[in-house]
Every structure is written in C-alpha cells, then in structure tokens.
Specification:
The chain has 13 helices and 23 strands. The protein is of the alpha+beta class. The chain has a domain of 67 residues: Archaeosine Trna-guanine Transglycosylase, Chain: A, domain 4 (Roll). Strands 5, 6, 7, 8, 9, 10, 11, 12, 13 and 16 form a ten-stranded mixed beta sheet that branches. It has a five-stranded mixed beta sheet with strand order 19-21-22-23-20. The protein has a four-stranded antiparallel beta sheet with strand order 2-3-1-4, with helices on one face. A hairpin with a 2-residue loop joins β17 and β18. The two termini are 27 Å apart. The structure holds S-adenosylmethionine. S-adenosylmethionine (SAM) binds next to α5 and α9.
Length: 458
C-alpha cells in the first residue's frame, strides 16, 4: 500500500486522539471480502447449503457474507455471471436497508454506479414499484446498467443524468432517495490505493461543495414524508457531520432520524461539527477498527412538510397489436406462459416497463425495465437481460450446465455445444438451475447467444 498522506495522518490523529493507534493498525491487517446474495434469485437457506465458498454472516446486514479475499475469487464463479450475488465492501451494505424500502414505492438512487446499493434496493423492492438508478458518468452508467441486468431486476430505470436535470424531471416524485455521494474516499485507502493519490484537504472541501449541490437536487425530488439517506465512504467530518448540519440549517422541512446501531456501529460526532448539535449523534459511523469493513458514514432524514402535488405523466403503453405478434409467438414457443405485461417498443427494440412507469422523454435512459429483445425480419430475438430475469421453471426448453464441470466456462467464452434429444429453437442455459443466458438449437447444434461484450476473454 502507498504511504498515507501526512496531512491525513495528522488530521485523523487530532480527531481520534487515543483511538488513532487502533485505527491506523487496521492498515496492516488482512481485509475480508464481502458478498451479498440476490434475494430475487436465491433464498438464504438454499445459499447456505449451496455456497461454493466458506462464508461467515455479516452481522449488520441481511443477505451479506464475508469471504477470505486471499483464498477465493467469487467474481470468476459462474454464479456471479448468473447474478446470484454481488461482491460489495461489507460496510457499504449497511446503507441501503436504512431506506426501509417497501415493494411498490418510488425510489431513486442518485449516485448509483457501479450498482452495489442499487442491486441491494432492487432485491428489497421484489420487482414492484419504480427504481430510478442514476449515474452521471457515461462509462460508469453502462457498468451500472449491466449490473442491474445481471441481478435480473425488472423495475429499474437506469439514467445517465446530472442531479439537476433529474430534479427538473421528477419534482417531489420519490418516496425514498439515496445519495451515496462521490467523496474523498478515505475509507477506500486499503481497498483502492489510487484513492490515496487523489487525497488532499482541498479535495475534501471540493467534495463537500459537490455533495451540497447533489443534496439540493435530491431534496427537491423528495415528497412529503419521504426519506433521504446520505452516505459516504470517507471519514472527514467536512463531508459527513458538516454536510448534515448544513441540511438541518438550510432545509427546515428536513428532520434527522435516529439510525439504529448494532454492535460496533457508532454514532456521528457532534464535536466534529461547527454547530456541535447533539442530534448529529443520530447519524452512524462504521469504523474499520470497530467492525470488519472499510468504514462508512450514513445519515437518515425525513421530509416533514407538505410538497406540491404535481402529477408526473406516465409512459403511455401502446395497444398490443401487430408489432408485438412476433414477441407473442416467441412467448408461446419458449415460455410456459406470459411473464411481462407492460410491453413497449423503441424502434425495433421491445421492453417491459414497470407499472406506472413515468414518462422519460428528454432523459438519457440506458435501461427502462427489462430489455426483452429485438424484432428482426420475421422473428423475435430475445435479449440477454430477458434470460437473467426469468426462472428456469418459466421456460420450456432448458439446457442445464453445472458449476462442477467446465462447460459453463465454455458457454461464457462463446463456444458452441452439441446436443441430443432437444427441441430446436431458443433454449435457456442454466448453471445449477440459475439462468446464465440464451442459446439456439438447430439440428443438434446449440449456437451460443452469450453477449460478445460480456464473454470471458482470458
Ligand atoms: C460512492 S460512488 C457510488 C457507489 C454506488 N452507490 C454503489 O453502491 O455501487 C459515487 C458515484 O457518484 C458519481 N458522481 C460523481 N460526481 C457526481 C455528481 N456531480 N453528481 C452525481 N453523481 C456524481 C460517481 O461517478 C460515482 O459513481
């Protein structure tokens, strides 16, 4: 690991005093990895029997497990390709459950890439309601969109916008908003030493300025009674307690809510703020010397005053006529019954959108619901996203692979298979029962439809 910046060391010594030695000692300890299972695809009981890695439960999050980083590579296991879990820094898993999301709500994850918290929220929504996952940087937005796809989330809309532009589109629209803010990343120094090179006290202040702007847009999008969760993976009070005191001073309709803290999770530090307001203890700090994780800050706020009741137009669903016939033929041949009710077309591309999907005109949208596939000349070609949202039981023709053999690797490399006794046409490829993608059988040859951009290249 690179040397920690002297100024950072001095600052943390000043802040933490006697605790500083314990804090700095963690930089020499072995880190643990974190993995969170996808409740849309696997039950914890099944997982605990089937997990290919020895795991220990993370005490402060449902569905989260530690694994030994130096012994296992869950990112290279077929279950990862099938979206059975997400690899996520353990303390980062603490944040999304604070939103207390219910299926059917309207939820915004404003700074969402690469999608750790979005996929966790998606799991909690059980495919019901609207989940807008936004990322400002186009390349990161693409990664976010791929992770949403891998997780098989059907009610997410992935956008690539600035917070201000979204705020114009969605005034007072959301029940729950997460701002997992871009920050100076002091909690990432062990995991990502590049964060050390970026660090300076000026950078901390620049991040704070940016955070306040993002929050202003977020608050504008929250409706009365709505919840805002703010989080960072940095320790600096300027980006944490001081951001929250700014909200409390400038937005009289925002009230701080106490976060329940389990073992090892500490309160925010009023003494590190300007106002010294005791209520900052309602916020939470996760420290690497108190829990097994890199560290995080989280605050939960509620909007208490009435907001204008603006009606946001819904996306108009077309009548299911001619252009969709090819899709319905595919549905009849390949699926055991209809699965997706809200079909819309964007040119030749068909999507299933969530119920009450808002009108998205004017926004850069990477994904709206499920990308079902494309209408080609005289046929419908299913998209990879469709395979990942389906359950094996919903499909007529299934080609089963197991994680024990290397066939799954041949599949994600894009190789062709030979088959016997299987019907011609589209078939769902599974690994130990988890959908992995599509293949198309003709005369005992299974052509591989695993997307070129996702193929295993090594
Ligand atoms: C801490 S990361 C989010 C991590 C993500 N929530 C997760 O759990 O995987 C912050 C994100 O904010 C994005 N970001 C940077 N500047 C931004 C801005 N001005 N407005 C909104 N998001 C921004 C970054 O590109 C980055 O992807």
């Amino acid at each position: 690991m690179s040397k920690l910046p002297e100024e950072f060391v001095r600052k943390m010594n000043d802040l933490l005093k006697d605790e500083a030695t314990e804090f700095f000692a963690t930089y020499n300890e072995t880190r643990l990895g974190g993995l969170r299972i996808n409740p849309l695809k696997v039950e914890p009981k099944r997982w605990e029997k089937q997990s290919p890695f020895p795991l220990n439960k993370i005490p402060f999050v449902e569905h989260g497990y530690y694994y030994a980083l130096d012994e296992y590579e869950p990112g290279k296991h077929p279950y990862h390709f099938a979206g059975v879990y997400y690899i996520q820094e353990p303390s980062a898993m603490f944040v999304a459950p604070l939103l207390d999301v219910k299926p059917g709500e309207r939820v915004l994850d404003l700074c969402a890439a690469p999608g750790g918290k979005t996929t966790q929220i998606g799991g909690m929504m059980e495919q019901r309601g609207i989940l807008v996952a936004n990322e400002i940087h186009p390349k990161r937005a693409k990664i976010l969109s791929e992770n949403v796809e891998r997780f098989g989330i059907t009610n997410a809309i992935v956008t690539n916008e600035t917070p201000d532009k979204l705020a114009k589109h969605f005034p007072y629209y959301f029940d729950k908003i997460l701002v997992d803010a871009p920050c100076s990343g002091e909690g990432m120094f062990r995991k990502d030493p590049e964060a050390i090179d970026y660090w300076s006290e000026q950078h901390v202040i620049a991040c704070q300025r940016n955070q306040l702007k993002i929050i202003d847009a977020a608050i504008h999008m929250l409706k009365e009674g709505g919840t805002l969760v703010y989080s960072t993976c940095t320790f600096s009070p300027e980006e944490n307690e001081q951001v929250i005191e700014h909200i409390l001073a400038n937005y009289p309709d925002m009230e701080l809510i106490t976060i329940d803290k389990g073992e090892g999770i500490e309160s925010g530090r009023p003494e590190w703020s300007v106002s010294k307001g005791e209520q900052l203890k309602k916020t939470a700090r996760l420290w690497p010397h108190k829990i097994k994780g890199e560290g995080h800050f989280a605050a939960k706020l509620k909007k208490t005053k009435p907001t204008p009741n603006l009606v946001i137009k819904e996306l108009k669903l077309p009548r299911k006529t001619a252009p969709f016939q090819l899709y319905f033929e595919f549905e009849r041949d390949v699926l055991k019954g209809p699965v997706f009710p809200n079909i819309v077309s964007f040119g030749n591309v068909l999507h299933h959108v969530p119920d009450h999907c808002p009108d998205l005109t004017g926004l850069k949208v990477l994904r709206a619901g499920v990308h079902l596939g494309e209408l080609k000349k005289n046929r419908f070609e299913p998209n990879h996203a469709l395979a990942l949202t389906l359950k094996k039981e919903e499909v007529k023709n299934v080609f089963e692979l197991t994680s024990e053999k290397t066939d799954w690797l041949r599949y994600v490399k894009g190789e062709t298979f030979t088959t016997t006794n299987q019907k011609n046409g589209w078939t769902l490829i599974t690994v130990d029962g988890f959908p992995l993608g599509w293949g198309k059988i003709a005369q005992s040859v299974l052509k591989n439809a695993y997307p070129k951009g996702l193929r295993w290249m090594k």
